[in-house]
Amino acid sequence: MSLFTGILVALIAAEHLYILWVEMFAWTTTGKRIFTSIDPELFGKTKVLAANQGLYNGFLAGGLIWSLFIGNPLWAENIALFFLTCVVLAGTFGALTSSKSIFLKQALPALLVLILVAAVR
Questions:
Q1: CA 89, 120, 72 angle in degrees (round to 5)?
Q2: CB 86 within 8 A of CB 60
Q3: How far is CA 70 from CA 3, 20, 24, 40, 94, in A?
Q4: Which of 50, 68, 108, 120 counts the highest number of beta carbons within 10 A?
Q5: Burial label, 118 (beta-carbon count in 10 A; 0-12, 13-18, 19+)
Q6: Mean pLDDT computed over every residue of the chain
Q7: CB under 8 Å to 25, separation ≥6 — which residues?
Q8: What pLDDT is attached to residue 47?
C-alpha cells in the first residue's frame, strides 16, 4: 500500500475512532450536539445501545489500523479492502435505515478510498 493510500485508510480509521468515542463515552454530551434529530430525552435511555454501536465502529477502525502495520503489501491491501468494504456496507445500511447523510459522511469516503486502494494494486 502506498503512503498516500495508507494516509487515506488512516483517515477513515480516525473517523471511526471518533464515532467510537462519541457513541461509547460522550453519547449524552457530544452525541446530543451531533445527533440533533434524536429527542434529547432518549440519550440516557439509549446509552448502552449507542455504546454497542461504538464498539463495532472500533472494530472497523482496528481492522483498518491493523492493515497499516502488515508487512506484506498484498495482505495489507486485502485487509484494508475488507474493512473498507465493511465500512461501505455499514454506512449504506445506515443511510437506508437511519439517515441518508450517513452515506455521505461514512460510506462514500470509504468507497472512494476502497476504489483507490484497489486501483493502485
A1: 85
A2: yes
A3: 13, 23, 28, 43, 30
A4: 50
A5: middle
A6: 96
A7: 54
A8: 96
Give the torsion sign (CA, 9, 84, 68, 75): negative
Cβ atoms of residues 22 and 34 within 8 Å? yes
Nearest to 51 by CA among 25, 29, 30: 25
- For residue 121, pLDDT beyond 80: no
What's the distance, CA 102 to chain centroid? 10
C-alpha cell at 52: 454497542
Tell me the per-residue pLDDT of 76-94, one tens digit each, with 9 for 90 and over. 999 999 999 999 999 999 9
Among residues 108, 13, 20, 26, the alpha carbon closest in space to that of 68 is found at: 13
Q: What is the DSSP letter of 18?
A: H
CA–CA separation, 80 vs 13, rounded Å? 10
Cβ contact 110:84 at 8 Å:
yes
